[in-house]
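Working notes for the structural subgroup meeting. M.R. asked for a predicted model of this chain before we commit to crystallization trials. I am recording the input and output together here so anyone reviewing the notebook later can reproduce the run.

Input as submitted:
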Amino acid sequence: MPPAEAVPPAEAVPPAEAVPPAVQETVRQLVDLSPVLTRLGERFAEAGFEAHLVGGSVRDALLAAGSAGPAVPGDLDVTTDARPTEVLRLLRGLASSTWNTGIAFGTVGAEVDGVRLEITTFRADRYDRESRNPEVAWGDSLVDDLARRDFTVNAMAVSLGPDRTVTDPYGGLGDLLARRLRTPGAATASFADDPLRMLRAVRFVAQLGLTPSDAVVGAMMSMSGELARITPERVQTELTKTLLQDSPRAALELFVATGLAGVVLPELSALRMEIDEHHQHKDVYAHSLTVLDQAIALERADAGHASPDLVLRLAALLHDVGKPATRRHEPRGRVSFHHHEVVGAKLVRRRLTALRYPKDVVEAVARLTFLHLRFHGYGRGEWTDSAVRRYVTDAGDLLPRLHKLVRSDCTTRNRRRAAALAATYDSLERRIAELAEQEDLARVRPDLDGNRIMEVLGIPPGREVGEAWRFLKDLRLERGPLDPDEAEAELRAWWSRRS
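Returned structure, recorded in token form:
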């Protein structure tokens, strides 16, 4: 944690009276829109307990209210002064099912009439500030419970009781209207309790279009190193949620500028290479963000493929991470990055593995990084049909993503050059389509299978069969489909040379 003199002071809380009454009324209407919440509120009130709709449920409904009126979110968060055992008792006969996976932290899950709820007892936790695990303590005050939440926009509640009281002690409604991101108390104290909140701040920039206050940004910059306390799995979850938003660029810029990326994704920060007046090259960091923007646009325009596409977005963001390690100053002020795709693929594989991404995601992003430069050279006319087949085969089921990545990688402002590159890639795609009409490029296999290889060569199963299979596949890529007699003759000739 930073020394006391480096800690920014807590911000003044905007007065709740500044929030228009109509907005507060919108919050109250949320409860009336949900029969489940009404029934839940009545049951808790009859037993003498408070119950409040709280947090993201209130926030998201308010955001949706601007155009279409209040809407009840799919999953609802409720807070109460009832203890977990009492919550379970009150849910009998009301909930079709309950689950206790979070009961140690005061949370009971339930499904009522097809609506999922999480009901959490007021908390007054304390953090040891060495891990992010709190010492769980029950609380008796809604205001105290709201004080421990991450941001003011998540520290709002509306009573499920008949009065429908709106509780907003930290100015969250006003912050939401102003698109401002603040913490209920001092940002440094909040982030010291749970450093993951700094990554949540990054996500909320992309997800909600909020702008962090100066105090929040200052705390993120001074405390970025605390993020090392968070498990890779939780970091990966937040990074993924950020990347899958509609426009993640501003959030990623905050991620890098505050130093958080330097802790958990240093390869991204390293793209901000110094550019001197004698050795000019484009800003690789800005280029990578633009590639991401363009890849997202192509992804959305392609109705035939899923959006958002995590693999494509990771590849777009990280495809050039091999450049810092391969930069060389050449004669006449030129700069080269030879084999940066090879180095980059290795760096991508190592970093995404460390962040606990699934193996299929890691391998797909690494392969796209490795292949993203393969296209360059096609425009000079030297690609044979064999080269086109290998391009398709090496990409495999990643080919649609590779098309988008390569097209997005053109960020030149020279319109003539950009048009020429697009036309050249159009030509490659047409050539792929033409070959695909003649051959099944998606399933290029040898003209003889393993059983026939063993029959022709008179050999048993083993390593030599695999070598023969690979020879025939290379032959298939080079020359296209062969009839069985020709394939057998080539196999026997290869076997004779090998022997």
